[in-house]
Amino acid sequence: MALTIATWNINSIRLRMPIVERFLNAHQPDILCLQETKCPNDLFPHAPLEALGYRHIAIHGQKGYHGVATLSRLPIEETIERRDYCNIGDSRHLSVIFTAGGKRIRLHNFYVPAGGDEPDRNINPKFGHKLDFLEEMKLLKADADAGISSILVGDLNIAPLEHDVWSHKQLLKIVSHTPVETEGMLAMMAGGNWVDLMRQHTPEPTKLYTWWSYRAQDWAAADRGRRLDHIWSSADLAPHLKDMQILREARGWERPSDHVPVIATFDL
Q1: Where are the domains of the chain?
Q2: CA pair distance 67, 82, nearest whole angstrom
Q3: Which residues, including other chains, have CB under 8 Å from residue 199's CB and lie 6 or more apart?
Q4: Is pTM, for the whole model, over 0.85?
Q5: Predicted local distance difference test score (pLDDT) of residue 79
Q6: What is 2-267's CATH topology?
């Protein structure tokens, strides 16, 4: 069977419902993982999403900030995990288990802290929070559960490789591409036995971006992007990846997020 999983930092689910509906109508992924929903659980817009066929919805939200949601056409198991990374009450993680093609799969949905502007934890607590969050994520193993495969998606707010940014040299001191962040992410990936599916499908030196700043007057012409959104898997699922699409055109939709959807297609 074909399985499609999409990830998208939507930057407010209620504000951007029109483009969420546009995306779901056009691409119809089996599962869509959203980040930065900025919506408390009791106000989450279940009805229009269920009307589009996404009747299995897991949410972890809070008012005004953060928040993740996983929308599925496929049934998900009742056990839903919401981890409080760094023990400060942020809604930044959600995991569900579903079955596809005879495989049980745990799907992690993450929104990693952005880290502020100054890459120095001594003067910028937001950057310290990000580094602590990444350190805690190193405990997450792709093969942690016997008999269960793993997929990890989300806005991880780090562009780890040289060609994940528009200029490696110019961004080495910019939060999201500093060595302490990129080395930490690569160590987390290696230590957790995760496979970077986007780079498996499109190896370096091809440039890959999923985010373009709102600050650019003409984001498309400047094309100063970063690959902040990721799809990883356990090693057993990697051979089943058949396609990976970055929906660049979504950055130009009306009232867009500064991130675009990324869609992975598996043949199970």
Answers
A1: 2-267
A2: 11
A3: 161, 208
A4: yes
A5: 85
A6: Deoxyribonuclease I; Chain A (3.60.10)
